[in-house]
Amino acid sequence: MPQHVLVGTRASALALTQTGHVVDALAALGRGDLTLETVRVRTDGDRLTGSLQSLGGTGVFVAALRDALLDGRCDVAVHSLKDLPTGDPDGLVLGAVPPREDPSDALCARDGLTLDRLPTGARVGTGSPRRAAQLLAVRPDLTVVDIRGNVDTRLGRVAGSATGPGDLDAVVLARAGLARLGRLEAVTQEFTPDVMAPAPGQGALAVEVRSDLPADAPLARALRLLDHRPTRLAVVAERALLGRLEAGCAAPIGADAHLAGDGRTLRLDAVIVRPDGGAILRRGRTIALGADGVADAHRLGTELAEILLDAGAADLAFLGAAR
Ligand SMILES: NCc1[nH]cc(CCC(=O)O)c1CC(=O)O
């Protein structure tokens, strides 16, 4: 008998697409030993309409899926990795981190405009303090408008869109989400990390399972094959940085890690921006990877966070909290 596995997902178009990729990959890797069924879980983040900040950040998207996993309504939960709060929840483990998409942010503007061509005072939509601060660092004249909603709703707010009110000149979205939804045609500029550093974990998926999953179960074997070591090491470093800074996904912090030196070293670059964009702190660090790469990646993130704290990161973050 093949192992039958319930895969929990949010019901947004992006979540369903992401979960579809994971289900297909697990089915292929499990060969005949796994059958998979998708289960939709409604989260507070989908149900309530206040600003993301007022709901307590993107953790609201994750909590309901984790509850479903813990009480057995599903056996696997697929999340956008950047939405996971730092810190490991009791009873759950990160079973696999599949290969990452391009983590960059993208501008989707009316009339093909780029950031430097938007008119003075242009209205740009984002719910992310990290994106807002980095936009204002380059273009202090812009009016940043707090928006949320799924990718289609946000794209519909750009002037000239056929599907929405068109009250904004542009929005900023993760390129990865647009790619997965087949909406890359809306992108008018892809940001390099020196202009807009992505959120820790952006572009990666997290496949969570209960920690008591037996190592010899077909699901456990398929997860080990799905796991992509370069992506896992990068996101462990990025999230360890965020954890040491005691910050969440709403913090104006960008981080970008990648393997270098033929996979023997890990490089982490991080940016902390004052929420008004008026001050930026950038630091980077590279380490050699030893026998336990995950532990090394974690140490890299923690050490770079400490370098940033020594350079005054808490003052920038405090200004954010005081705003
Ligand atoms: N917070 C919402 C969210 N979570 C993950 C993605 C995009 C896909 C990804 O980063 O993997 C998005 C939308 C966005 O930021 O544009």
Automatic annotation (TrEMBL):
This is Porphobilinogen deaminase. InterPro entries: HemC, Porphobilin_deaminase_cofac_BS, Porphobilin_deaminase_N, Porphobilinogen_deaminase_C, Porphobilinogen_deaminase_C_sf. The keyword Transferase applies. Residues 6-212 form the Porphobilinogen deaminase N-terminal domain. Monomer. Belongs to the HMBS family. Tetrapolymerization of the monopyrrole PBG into the hydroxymethylbilane pre-uroporphyrinogen in several discrete steps. Binds 1 dipyrromethane group covalently. It catalyses: 4 porphobilinogen + H2O = hydroxymethylbilane + 4 NH4(+). Its cofactor is dipyrromethane. Keywords: Porphyrin biosynthesis, Transferase. The porphobilinogen subunits are added to the dipyrromethane group. Residues 233-309 form the Porphobilinogen deaminase C-terminal domain. Its EC number is 2.5.1.61. The keyword Kinase does not apply. GO terms for molecular function: hydroxymethylbilane synthase activity. It is an enzyme of class 2 (transferase). PANTHER family: PORPHOBILINOGEN DEAMINASE. The modification S-(dipyrrolylmethanemethyl)cysteine is found at C249.
